[in-house]
Design brief:
By secondary structure, the chain is α/β, with parallel strands linked by helices. It is built from eleven helices and nine strands.
Length: 308
């Protein structure tokens, strides 16, 4: 059996192109499984997975939990708000207490960039990064690229635009790394205040013109405006943001060809996208959600194989 080159999934930066292709091939098999009448396989029987979410999450947490159940894993769910973390317990103490219960794998979301990498150096369990601050969100990038591959046949050579709040997004950085490893051309687009200066050094194009970017791209991956992370005003108002950077049906109709529209969710309807774009035939947002389960099953399965 083929194996990943790493025993953790801390970020896309640590994966090779062969790793990504192996995850996609494995996800192809699991996608067939989750569309059967009986959707469970015994692949992770006797493996215990702890889901540690130190930040609120709905889509990612539910997707991981469903993937684990489909693989017949035993599951421990942990949320910081109802734990001893709120009493001052350290991250390492919290995780070591959970590992003392004989947990094999840890899926963790944490507000601090590098938290998953820190844990991987101190505990024996396999770590899967479900989002660390504004750093990386590797499984989201994998499912995004997998969804592009599914719709367009391949990622190599395609023009992918990442539009919106790049500054506060962990999805953007992981997407850039993943798409570049797969041979895509990447452009980021948004207000100058929401695009960090270092993105130009990553080998991506930078634009502040949405209409021009939509004319250029094959795929528009539109990111949520993360108001909860914005401690200062980066633009005058949501109404003005939508006027300059929101994507409408009229804008798509004005293009000479169809482009694919994506969004990692949750959508601020009427801000990043209008509803008639989000729900259109060009949108693959719901396919992204379905593919997320298959990708996370593949990652869990391949990392569990590292334990044998």
């Amino acid at each position: 059996m083929k194996a990943l080159s790493t025993r953790h999934l801390l970020g896309i930066k640590d994966l090779t192109e062969n790793d990504i292709q192996l995850i996609f091939e494995t996800a192809d098999n699991f996608k067939e499984v989750i569309n059967r009448p009986i959707k469970k396989v015994p692949s992770l029987r006797d493996i215990t997975v702890a889901n540690l979410f130190f930040e609120s999450s709905t889509r990612t947490r539910v997707s991981f939990e469903l993937a684990e159940r489909r693989l017949s894993a035993d599951i421990v769910n942990f949320t910081a708000s109802s734990s001893s973390v709120s009493k001052g317990e350290t991250l390492l103490d919290t995780v070591n207490n959970i590992l003392a219960m004989k947990v094999d794998m840890v899926v963790m979301r944490h507000p601090a960039p590098g938290a998953c990498a820190f844990l991987s150096r101190h505990i024996p369990a396999n770590i899967i990064n479900a989002g660390d601050g504004t750093h990386e969100h590797p499984t989201q990038a994998l499912l995004d690229a997998y969804s592009i591959r599914e719709r367009l046949g391949d990622v190599a050579g395609k023009k992918i635009a990442i539009i919106g709040d790049i500054l506060h997004s962990r999805v953007a950085l992981s997407n850039v790394f993943c798409l570049q490893k797969l041979g895509a051309h990447v452009r980021v687009c948004g207000p100058p205040t929401l695009i960090p200066k270092h993105y130009a050094a990553l080998g991506v194009e930078v634009s502040h013109n949405v209409r021009q970017t939509l004319e250029w791209c094959d795929v528009a991956n539109v990111l949520r405006i993360q108001l909860e992370r914005q401690d200062i005003r980066y633009f005058p108002s949501l109404r003005e943001y939508h006027q300059y950077f929101g994507i409408t049906r009229q804008m798509l109709d004005a293009l000479q060809r169809d482009i694919v529209v994506m969004h990692p969710g949750p959508i601020n309807r009427g801000v990043e996208l209008t509803s008639d774009v989000a729900d259109s035939r060009q949108s693959i947002i719901l396919q992204q959600v379905e593919n997320g389960v298959a990708i996370r099953m593949a990652v869990l399965y391949l990392l569990a194989a590292e334990r044998t």
